[in-house]
Amino acid sequence: MAAALLEIRPVDWLKPDESRAVIEVLNSYASHAMGGGVPLSESVRANLSAELSKRAQTLVLLAWSEGQAVGLVIAFEGFSTFACKPLMNVHDLAVLPKFQCRGVGKALMAAVEAEARRRGCCKLTLEVLENNQHARKLYEAVGFAPYQLDPAAGRALFLEKKLA
Question: CA-based, 20 to 30 A from 10: which of 62, 64, 112, 143?
Answer without folding.
Answer: 143
